[in-house]
Amino acid sequence: MQNPDFIRLSFFLSVLVLCGLWEWLTPRKQLTQNKLFRWLNNLGLIAFNSLCLSLLMPFLAFEVAVRIGQSNIGLFNHIDMPFALEVFLCVILLDLAIYAQHVVFHRVPWLWRLHRMHHADQDIDVTTGARFHPIEIILSMWIKISLIAVLGISPLAVLIFEVVLNASAMFNHSNAKLPLAIDKQLRKWVVTPDMHRVHHSVIAKETHSNFGFCLSIWDRMFRTYIAQPAQGHDNVKIGLPLFRQPNEQRLDKMLTQPFRQQ
């Protein structure tokens, strides 16, 4: 298989550029913060997280999947089924796991302190899709590794899922206008920007809804779905009641937010 790091980076940069152009050409909501300042700090955080993973993790999800396959460990390594079906099921199960993890990070107080940094962005655009605290990134990687080991998920399924997850996160965080008729049909299957914008509302009930990253079916199935923000998309206030000073969007401030109340 071609270098997975190259594949992931290629898709990441391509989707970042495409969604960035889309939201620049057809913005959905007027931004309230300096876009250049936010982008520099959000993208700086992404680079910092990548460095933390490379320094602090002895192995990543793809490498674990390769070793698990070689050792014939995990559920799917003992089930006889077509490989294409196995990959499809594994990607679906990983997406469900990310939904469940997202719910837990909202409902467990100390995990919420980590995750709320993602919600402290006072605008939502393509860069918000990868704005997560490094401790949350590392915890998420260990959760994913554990699931790969238990299920025996193949390296190809892991790679497809990681590409789809990153692309979906950037797509559904984009501040881009999707025609309402297309949004109505598309959100039956996948999370759209309008659907996910509800999740970034400052209103607590809306913050703790619409947890899906790729497939929208989980929110409907587990009754965490809210169709539209109460204030409408033009007027919905993005972010949290905490950390509303402009300098809270600075990289050093973001990194310390889990350890501060304000």
Overall description:
Its main location: membrane. Residues 88-224 form the Fatty acid hydroxylase domain. There is one protein chain. By secondary structure, this protein is mostly helical. It has one domain. The protein is built from twelve helices and no strands. It has helices spanning 4-25, 35-56, 61-71, 83-107, 109-119, 134-151, 155-173, 180-186, 193-197, 204-207, 217-221, 251-256. Helix 1 runs parallel beside helix 7 (155-173). The longest helix has 25 residues, at 83-107.
How does the SSE layout of this entry go?
Layout: H1 4-25, H2 35-56, H3 61-71, H4 83-107, H5 109-119, H6 134-151, H7 155-173, H8 180-186, H9 193-197, H10 204-207, H11 217-221, H12 251-256
Q: TL;DR of this structure?
A:
It is built from 12 helices and no strands. The protein is an all-alpha fold.
Quick tags:
262 residues, 59% helix
Approximate helicity band: 55-70%
Strand content: under 5%
The tally of beta strands, per DSSP, is 0
Compute the separation of the termini in Å.
47 Å
General form: globular
Which runs of at least 5 residues are low in confidence (pLDDT < 50)? none
* Largest sheet features: none
Structural category = mainly alpha
* Overall structural domain count: 1
Q: What's the helix count?
A: 12
| Strand and helix order | HHHHHHHHHHHH
Work out the radius of gyration: 18 Å
What value does the average pLDDT take? 95
Pfam families: FA_hydroxylase
Domain Fatty acid hydroxylase: 88-224
Protein name: Sterol desaturase
InterPro entries: Fatty_acid_hydroxylase (IPR006694), Sterol_Desaturase_Related (IPR050307)
